[in-house]
Amino acid sequence: MTRRERWEHRTQNPLIALSVVFAVAYAVPILAPDARPWVLHGATWVEWAAWAAFAVDYGMRLLLAEQRWTFVRSNPLDLASVLLPLVQPLRLLRLVSTLLLAGRRVRMASQVRLTTYVAGVVLGLLVFGSLAVLEIERSSPTASIRTLGDALWWSFTTMTTVGYGDLTPTTGLGRLLAVALMLSGIALLGVVTANIAAWFVARFQAEERVDHQNQQAILELTAEVRELRRQLAELGAVRPADPPSEPSEGLSADLSAEPSAEPSAEPPAGPSRATEPVA
């Protein structure tokens, strides 16, 4: 992990918390314009302090980068967000700059998934777009957006590119904000649609992968069964012949009862002497 990555990891959560504080400070003068002066001035100072913290963070990341020119070229929005409020100190520019810097740091967080990030961006654009258009249009004599409810409804219909036309900005800055919300809505709808399509494709691919694994397992089992059959057939072909059986008891008795063919050991008797006649 490089020094810049360590810095980003350490300052990630404090800057995200600071962006929430900035959101509250930005909303207070719009929702409570009749608040005490010290409250309004305090909110303004908090806005500048939050922007300054993000600007210091950008400077530190640039200082700790190994290739600074490459870092600047790869993060043009961060540089623009730091310089815009210095060129024209408008609250709307401070809002846009701080939101861009905060969104950049949230996107770096490894625990934040794409779906969570997109949902956060949609909610942020809806809320801050409503606050910004309310602040811009409320003071116009011909404005039709005069309450927070009107501003939320207008932001929602503008971001979704529906545009009922019942509420429209009448000032030049309000219309510029409307164009930004339209483009942001179209981009976010594309991202959401692509994310949903990718989710379905991933599910189908997972099912196909499981089916392929099952088919592969069946083929392997079939091959193993064929191999076992072949081995059993080979064992049956080389089985040894049966040994000769023992003679039965009857056959043994018959063989023992047969006379011996060998000659007798006793000599044969000679011819008997004839009886001589008496003279």
Overview of this structure, please?
The protein is mostly helical and 279 residues long. The chain has a domain at 1-112. It is built from 9 helices and no strands. The termini are far apart.
Offer a quick outline of the entry.
The chain has nine helices and no strands. The protein is mainly alpha-helical. The protein has a domain at 1-112.
Number of helices: 9
Q: What does the radius of gyration come to?
A: 50 Å
Give the percentage of residues in beta strands: under 5%
Quick one: overall form?
Answer: elongated
Question: Characteristics of this structure?
Answer:
279 residues, mainly alpha, 9 helices, 73% helix, disordered C terminus
List the helices and strands and how they pair.
Layout: H1 3-31, H2 37-64, H3 68-74, H4 76-87, H5 91-108, H6 114-137, H7 148-159, H8 172-237, H9 249-257
